[in-house]
Design brief:
The complex is a heterodimer of chains A (386) and B (357). In chain A, helix 7 packs parallel to helix 9 and helix 9 packs antiparallel against helix 13. By secondary structure, chain A is an alpha+beta fold. Chain A folds into three domains: 76 residues, Butyryl-Coa Dehydrogenase, subunit A, domain 1 (Orthogonal Bundle), CATH 1.10.540; 111 residues, Butyryl-CoA Dehydrogenase, subunit A, domain 2 (Beta Barrel), CATH 2.40.110.10; 138 residues, Up-down Bundle (Butyryl-CoA Dehydrogenase, subunit A, domain 3), CATH 1.20.140.10. Chain A is globular and about 75 Å long. Chain A is 44% helix and 14% strand. By secondary structure, chain B is an alpha+beta fold. Chain B has three domains: 106 residues, Butyryl-Coa Dehydrogenase, subunit A, domain 1 (Orthogonal Bundle), CATH 1.10.540; 93 residues, Butyryl-CoA Dehydrogenase, subunit A, domain 2 (Beta Barrel), CATH 2.40.110.10; 143 residues, Butyryl-CoA Dehydrogenase, subunit A, domain 3, CATH 1.20.140.10. In chain B, a hairpin with a 2-residue loop joins strand 3 and strand 4. In chain B, helix 7 runs antiparallel to helix 10. The longest helix of chain B is centred in the middle third of the chain and has 36 residues. Classes of the chains: A alpha+beta (386), B alpha+beta (357). Chains A and B meet through helix 7, helix 8, helix 9 and helix 13 of A and helix 7, strand 9, helix 8, helix 9 and helix 11 of B.
Chain lengths: 386, 357
């Protein structure tokens, strides 16, 4: 047991810090051209797609250095390393694992260069948690698939250039997980209709996506026909340390402590209230647990030991914390806590009120807490499936 | 960066697991009636477990708490009645705070198992602070320490005393004291109320408030490590039951009301395991970080294991709370563990203070 890093890893951390000191101005000082320049600079360092193979433009970096990079970026409050979060998180890794050489050459550089934004066409109106039951139909006609059906809750669809789309190519199957095929589809294909949905925070970043006789060339199929479920599952398990999220949560905890310090309840400092102090202690313990769970799982990964579905442990913690920390801040500050940005009475500019409405994208997207519990119960504890 | 155990530590883990399975199964644990199982204690000594963290210069093996962690986790899995935590605390306290003479005299006896230590730090059941220590330290000791862990099985007692602001630890021959066994929920964790009537301690050495906090943190980490094994054992027992118990034509583990609770138990155990390993690492490598790490681990484990103990029994239905079935033994351990070396509330409040509130 040893939390020390090798001299090379320490040197890498120093390099990242130095880079951030030189290239990351404070938010107020960031001009219009900042983001473009930032993306180019991190790309030049090969920090985008840090662990991806070199031959496709990735950084070929180690898992430990990837964790260091994420931690330092989060500590500095740096913006993302690319504009397509889904492209970097799972579309790219999915293409690297299952794609043809031609697909890798065609798609990976554009993801790394932030030229193309991806969205993910998984959920359907009748199939969300039961994802493997999807019904969007892809019918092979010559050298094309013809897609008909509907996706929903598709985050980023209003501005995405491409969609990674789960379709059904076979309906007469023994297991519903068979007969699913994964297609890569340009969003400007004729027959695609995107209708944004307003969420409870007032944002319109997810949408219904309708497909009517959309023609997709066969060369845009990712993996084999009928084997799309494996693509979905394995591409989600790319990185396990969750160190970036943990670092952001520690920063949020500090902000929460500052809020407590400046808040009075019933005329008395909230910081002296044992119930308030205990809640903060509980938050800290959960975030620290996420951190050290992540390091244990990273260690297993580094040693080449098999990992089951342990990432669901941290997903559950994150879901709870996403909801509870904002909710705590809103309750702590009374009616001022419910004021949104724009209100003169808003607390911290309405930050807490606003994010208290934003958790569902994290908590529900990628599998609800109850789905994570099913995964743990069935895959780790070996309990029977529902 | 490597947050895992070495091959040697994994071998030690297997050795302890084998010992618990072969020599000290729950049937043996149940048969103990507050006494020390001499033969098992001797085996533990022969296997070197009592000498693990004692320095080589004093007859020990000179390993670290992270090695001891493996022993505590696996002996906790089987609810071992051996006073391993008290023995480890005595070794730690004497090794850290006592003078050379006392070290030379006592550490070899601890390592060999010839001295069996009971430990009593605080006099008040709900006050973890130097001020809560009332037993007065002098050339002779008179008074009562009500909660001395393992006093009933000990040959020697390590007792905290206070005179004004001066804290001292006293080593007392258990035969010189009147030890009254106390009926308590968890029989695998015996207590004795210890009355001293003008007796002369065998040794006395001063400690600082930091030392006292350090020993308390070591105790909190030690019982949390035992709790990892115990909580995993009751989760395994309950999971197994849920796979085999058929109701409404299905194994009850198929129902989300059952399986989700079991999944949440897994999440909690994984989490306080990670926190406890981190705190163990801090004992060996970063004492400055120990208070926060120990408090987060003990707080999380205190709450989580208490719920796991209750639900481990509850998910079984009526069979779960029969005396014959083993689930109840873990519930009892969880109630003891919750209060030992500070409960969740104490440790969360302390974590908040350490975090700048």
């Amino acid at each position: 047991m040893d939390f020390d890093f090798t001299p090379e890893e320490q040197a890498f951390r120093a390099e990242v810090r130095e880079f951030l000191a030189e290239n990351l101005p404070s938010r107020a000082e960031r001009g219009r051209g900042f983001m473009g320049e930032w993306l180019r600079k991190v790309r030049d360092r090969r920090w985008v797609g840090f662990s991806w193979p070199e031959e496709y433009g990735g950084g070929a970096g180690s898992l430990t250095e990837q964790a260091i990079l994420k931690e330092e970026m989060a500590l500095a409050g740096a913006p993302p390393l690319g504009t397509s979060s889904m492209g970097l998180a799972w579309v790219g890794p999915g293409i690297i694992q299952y794609g043809t050489d031609e697909q890798k050459q065609r798609f990976i550089p554009d993801i790394l260069d932030s030229k193309v934004n991806w969205c993910t066409g998984y959920s359907e109106p009748n199939h969300g948690s039961d994802l493997a039951a999807i019904q969007t139909k892809a019918e092979r006609v010559g050298d094309h698939y013809v897609v008909n059906g509907q996706k929903i809750w598709t985050t980023g669809a209003p501005w995405a250039d491409w969609i990674i789309l789960l379709t059904r190519t076979a309906f007469e199957v023994e297991r519903k997980h068979d007969g699913i095929t994964c297609l890569l589809v340009p969003m400007d294909s004729p027959g695609i209709d995107v209708r944004p949905i307003e969420n409870m925070a007032g944002d319109r970043n997810f949408a219904e996506v309708f497909f009517t006789d959309v023609q997709v060339p066969v060369e845009n199929r990712l993996g084999e026909e009928g084997k799309g479920w494996a693509v979905t599952i394995s591409s989600l398990a790319n990185e396990r340390s969750s160190i970036g999220e943990v670092t952001q949560m520690f920063a949020k905890l500090e902000a929460l402590k500052n809020l407590v310090r400046s808040t009075k309840r019933q005329g008395k400092p909230a910081a002296d209230d044992p119930a308030v102090r205990r809640r903060l202690g509980e938050f800290e313990a959960k975030i620290a647990a996420m951190k050290y769970n992540g390091l244990r799982y990273l260690t297993k990964q580094l040693r080449g030991e098999p990992l089951s579905s342990e990432t669901s442990v941290n997903k559950l913690h994150r879901a709870n914390l996403e909801i509870e920390m904002d909710d705590f801040a809103v309750e702590l500050t009374g009616l001022a806590g419910v004021q949104l940005p724009g209100s003169d009475e808003a607390v911290d500019g309405g930050r807490w009120a606003r994010s208290s409405l934003g958790w569902p994208s994290v908590v529900i997207g990628g599998g609800t807490p109850n789905i994570q519990r099913n995964i743990i119960a069935e895959r780790i504890l070996g309990l029977p499936k529902d | 960066m490597d947050f895992g155990f070495t091959d040697e530590q994994n071998l030690l883990r297997e050795q302890v697991l084998r010992f618990m399975t072969d020599a000290c199964p729950l049937s043996v644990v149940r048969a103990q009636n507050g006494g020390l199982p001499r033969e098992l204690w001797q085996q533990a000594a022969d296997l070197g477990w009592l000498a693990l963290i004692v320095p080589e210069a004093h007859g020990g093996i000179g390993l670290k708490w992270v090695d001891l962690a493996v022993v505590l986790e696996e002996s906790g899995r089987g609810l071992s009645p051996l006073p391993l935590v008290s023995q480890a605390l005595a070794a730690t306290a004497i090794g850290r705070c006592a003078g050379d003479d006392a070290k030379s005299e006592w550490l070899p006896k601890i390592a060999a198992g010839d001295a069996v230590f009971g430990v009593g730090l605080y006099d008040d059941a709900t006050w973890i602070d130097a001020e809560g220590i009332r037993l007065s330290g002098g050339a002779t000791l008179t008074g009562t320490k009500p909660f001395v862990s393992d006093a009933t099985v000990a040959t020697h007692l390590l007792l905290a005393t206070r005179t004004g602001r001066e804290l001292r630890l006293a080593i007392v021959d258990a035969e010189d004291a009147t030890v009254t066994a106390q009926a308590s929920i968890d029989r695998t964790k015996p207590f004795g109320s210890t009355t001293l009537d003008g007796i002369e301690p065998l040794a006395m050495f001063p400690i600082s408030t930091d030392d006292l906090a350090y020993l308390t943190d070591c105790g909190a980490v030690a019982v949390t490590l035992e709790g990892i094994g115990a909580a995993e054992a009751v989760l395994a027992l309950t999971t197994d039951y849920a796979k085999n118990r058929i109701q409404f034509d299905n194994p009850i583990g198929k129902y989300q009301g059952v399986k989700h609770r079991l999944a949440d138990m897994f999440v909690d155990i994984e989490s306080f395991k990670s926190l406890a390993y981190c705190a163990t690492w801090a004992i060996d490598n970063a004492p400055d970080e120990l208070p926060r790490a120990a408090s987060l681990a003990k707080a999380y484990a205190s709450d989580a294991f208490a719920r796991i103990g209750i639900d481990g029994v509850g998910l079984h239905g009526a069979i779960g709370f029969t005396a014959e079935y083993d689930a109840q033994l873990y519930l009892k351990r969880s109630k003891w563990l919750r209060s030992a070396f500070g409960d969740a509330d104490y440790h969360y409040q302390r974590a908040a203070s350490l975090g700048g509130l």
